[in-house]
Structure formats: structure tokens, C-alpha cells
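Person: I keep going back and forth on a fold encoding question. Show me how you would write down a chain together with its backbone fold. Please set it down just below, with no commentary around it:
Helper:
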Amino acid sequence: MLQDRICSLRINDKDIDMIAQPVYEKLPAIYLLIAASTILLSPAPLPVLLAVIIFLLGARIFNMRSQNRRSDNPKRRRRGLLPEALYNLLPYKYLLGALFVFRHGDSNYLMFAGAGLTCFALFRLAQRRSYRQHQLPVTIRVI
């Protein structure tokens, strides 16, 4: 059952229970999906506010993982006008904006704009993912 899915890690003679990797890897996406569905379907403002908070936390977790998995050369990274934390959350802010356009948009033109925002956000996330992959540590050979 659930206890079978939890791994155990031992650090400094203490057992630490961890979530299994397949579940752990999908958690931020689950946060984003739950928040997006709540934003789109809930008529009350309080659940929408809580969904925005959950959405931003899921985006933050994705962003932290993404920064940890960067494989591009640090010297080739460009500095922009925005602080790095804000810049890294931009695609998620585009998605959040698209959700609110879909929620409150009455005309077809707004729906088209929301679809454009969604496509642009997904494009930026796909670009970002191309330089962020799991990599095994490079072995150091001592002669």
C-alpha cells in the first residue's frame, strides 16, 4: 500500500521516509493541474485565491528543480533586466494569466489571446527544458 511506496533513507543514523521517485517527480505537475482546474471551475473567490497560491508553489518547485538540473555553461548565460527569480517564473505567470483570461473572457478574441498565451508559455517551458536534464556525475579518472 502507501507504506510500500515510501522509500527509507538513512542519514546520520536516522531513518528518513521519502516519497517514491515516480510520485515525487509528478507532484509539481499535480499541483499545477489541481490549481488550474480550481481556477477554471470554482465560482467563489477564496478557492481561486488558494488555487493561485498552490499554482505559484508548484511553479516554484518546478523552478527549483529546473535550476538544479541546468546543464548549460554558466559563462554563456545572459543577464537580463529582470531579477533571476522573476524571470524564471515568467512562463508560469503567462499560464496563470491565460487561466484568468479563460475564466473571465467572454469574447472569442479573448479566448484566442488566452490560447496564444498558453502556447507561448508552453514554448518557453519547452525551450527551458532543452538545457535541463538529469545527468550522471562525471567520473574523475586518477592516473
Q: What stands out?
A: The mean pLDDT is 82. The first strand starts at residue 6 and ends at 11. The CA atoms of residues 12 and 81 lie 43 Å apart. Residues 2-129 form one domain.
